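Appendix C reproduces, verbatim, an entry submitted by the partner laboratory led by Prof. M.T., so that reviewers can inspect both the input and the predicted structure.
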Amino acid sequence: MSVIFATWALFCSMVTVSVADEQSDVEFFESKIRPVLVKHCYECHSTATSTSEGGLRLDSRETIRSGGDRGPAVVPGDIAASWLLTAVTHSDPDLQMPPRRAKLPDDVIADLKTWIERGAVDPRDHPAQNTPASSNPKRAGRDFWSYQTPRSVQSPQVMDSSWPVNEIDRFILSRLEQNQLAPSTDAAADVLLRRVYIVLIGLPPSPDELARFAASVQADGMDSAIEQCVDALVQSPQFGERWGRHWLDVARFAESSGKEANISFPYAFRYRDYVIDCFQRDLPFDRFLTEQIAGDLLPYENDAERARLLTATGFLAVGTKNLDAVDAKQFAADIIDEQIDTVTRAVLGSSIACARCHDHKFDPFTMQDYYSLAGIFVSTKTHFGTAVSPSNRQSGDPLVLPRVQGQQIFHKSIPAARVKTLTEQLSSLRAEQEAGMAAVYKAVAEGRDASGIFEIRDALRIFWQSGGIEGELEKVDENGNALPLAMGTLEAEAAVDARLLARGDVGHPQQTVPRGFPKAIQLDSTPTIPDEKSGRLELAHWLIDSRHPLTSRVIVNRLWHHVFGAGLVKSVDNFGVMGDPPSHPELLDYLAVMFVNDGWSVKRLVRELVLSRTFRQSSDFDQSAFEKDPENRLLWRASKRRMDAESIRDAMLSVADQLDLKRPDGSLVARLIGDRPISLIGLDKRLPSDLDGATHRSVYLPVIRDRLPEVLDLFDFAEPGLVTGSRETTNVPIQALYLMNSPFVRARAEGMAVRLLQSTNEPSKQIHLAFLLCFGRQPDQLEQQRSLEFLQADGETKSTSEAAVKKSATDNESGSDDAESRELLISFCQGLMSTAEFRNMD
């Protein structure tokens, strides 16, 4: 069968296989759906208010599905049959909810629609797995495993002492032996090297690297060869790009606001580069966390260090924002909520944001805990750098950095005279507004008709015009010189405590809650927040306390997940009661304690994991082991894994010898929009229709919410609006269509064909090299034979020149031997890139 036919067969056989993430659906309900029901529906449809108008209660899963007089309010997966959606969209004039009020915001309705489409997962009245014996959440915080300080444990004794090469292996082998299982044999050298390269730097090894590794194994043995290889890779620049991208998933990094307006964030690239540089430097992770939460509060020696620390706080600023929001108080509360959710989910593996409207239903976090953290962020000013415009009601000042040599600035300076003109225009507009409002107040006070004096259209005109001028002035100093700008945070003008909001509603403030930290997590000493400070630095110190039960566990579990494909705690973003229990709790504690004692070094821990015998195992299937442990939680073999979207794309560029390893200047968003008014990025014609086109590493592609580059979008890139520690993996027909029809893939196939011809004109040798490039192995006899048959015509091998392959894809000489041979070789290369083996680690 030819490679073309094999690719077509692959496409035809593909079926949708999505790895369901039930926990993310539960979290979506808790953060997006339950608060809406509590705020807008419980008043008339709940047990708490003893009201069930229309025979309907919405405060439990059973009652919302059974419905009332009209039938089920929610039918999982069926939007048309879920009349709750009909009610909130006001599409039926006789059924409009909430009654006598404005329709719910579009983003809220969109969340309800998404919830129903995804199966309306509703944990209310659902018995929680792994629930502690006590139903008291505060008591659960004392008893549940993840809220206990990690213990220093010794590695266990094992029967087969010849197998382990480090302490990690002893923990793994001990559990295997307890379950009458044995580890798999070691993977072949070429398979192992490909796995090591993709895990550590996200790129496949070259044929030369494969040959050198094989020679090293032959001369020095596997232990020495693999150690030398790993040591070189963790020091390469590509390590920081690979592992920095993992954290950017967690940090929900993006270059636009998302939501309805979706305004660009042209300064976000600085945070992206900061993260990559930190992983490359192996900045201790406790320091890394501290800089991101409170970098602006840390001491510094020079302007360059100050700029770096300010940029680090972009972690708190790059989240989604509803810039089209009308209510400024609600907008501010939502930013704070998103920051609390990000910090706690990313660092603690627990979303305390679920306690915004009510005490957490499963974990030991209360509304008091939530608003004690909220006060920290109320006392923080978030600089996200968007100016008011007709598509953006909410402005956010950019964060001005100190000037540093070599700083990239993508917006232009303006003449000092224009600065003066703009300043005068802004003063004139403000004076016009003040005079207009004063005239209205005077007319009302005198009992006169105020209509026509200063109308809403006048106020809106001044609002939009002022916003545009302010946006232009914020980018330059008083002399018109372009300022280096970033996204990040600073202390607010005053430090204040937050007020608890009944049902999370900004319109119902209640008692003030002192700034502090969740009470369920007990430390030997808890930092005290000074009255005049926000508390962010103290929050960072609390998080990185060596006896904190969650931080080190969550981080080492994230690292384990990326090395082995699944965390010791599979629910990497949820260490709470509804999360998964650890498969190896003693090993998790051992690694957490070791990580802290070893200076929070990511590189040294990743090195230790990759050098384990556990990592070296083959991925060969074993029926008896599978029957005992079908999910491979005990790690009796290496799990088969598909590469992530970035590695797939980077591998195509690599095998085509077209990968540019230099860091590009800024980002596409910054370069195209940095010197022009910020706009609705989804409609911005300055951006190319194909965002995949660059040949730099994929970590530098633009990350625009709701408009991702196609290859990232199709191959399960992290949702940039959410903390994502574990990406979904799907296998769907549209992926095959992309591989078969994408101009990007076609261009890589042409580049690979040129590379083959630069090496040799002999088809048999071209095939051999192609398999080494794409799969890291030699073709077997059948693959060699069929590939050769495909590259031949009429039983005779055609000689294909490099010049012929380089011809334009629009060449019409399809009847010539050169054109036919060119297309055959390019199709052969594209076919190899389209196979499952190319996309899989081994």
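The radius of gyration is 29 Å. Additional entries are available on request from the coordinating office.
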